[in-house]
# Entry
Amino acid sequence: MIIDDSLDKIAADVAICRLCRLFRTRTNAVPGEGSSLVKAVLIGEAPGRSEDEQGRPFVGKAGKILDYVLRETGINRSQIFITNLVKCRPPGNRIPTVDEVTTCRMYLDREFAFLRPKIIGLLGRTAYSTFIGGDGFSSDRGRILKKNGQTYLITFHPAAAIYNKSLIESLKSDFTKMSSEFGL
Ligand code: URA
# Structure
């Protein structure tokens, strides 16, 4: 447990991290981003090409969809904190390995310890299996559930809506549910 931590310190540590192999191929590490006074955290999978170039989460195609869904549901980026399971881009945008996710978990835990979110939105199957486990993503999607004292919203990864636009409506309804139940 690190006392006197801050989002800036976490971001500074992420920027120089060499704990797993992903540091060798990254351009920039991508720390979580957002205000320190949020009720909700959204967790994606891993930075993609645009995020790697800019050092910021969800600024590429998936980010545009996320921004659209947030706007449509009346949520401002300043009301949420956006982060990823791993902070460096896996080569070719492959799914991060369990090893990489486990190594990077320390930074997520520091972000959570600092923010104490009321709700964590798990974007997609990789975030779901990391926090909830099992293969119940499809049946749990759209639900708000509790595990080990933490509340989670299970929803699609915005990237899934790039090729399947019908998922945007599901994302909107899931985010509306989160927003109304947690007073975002
Ligand atoms: N996909 C993610 O999971 N995270 C990002 O930051 C961008 C795309």
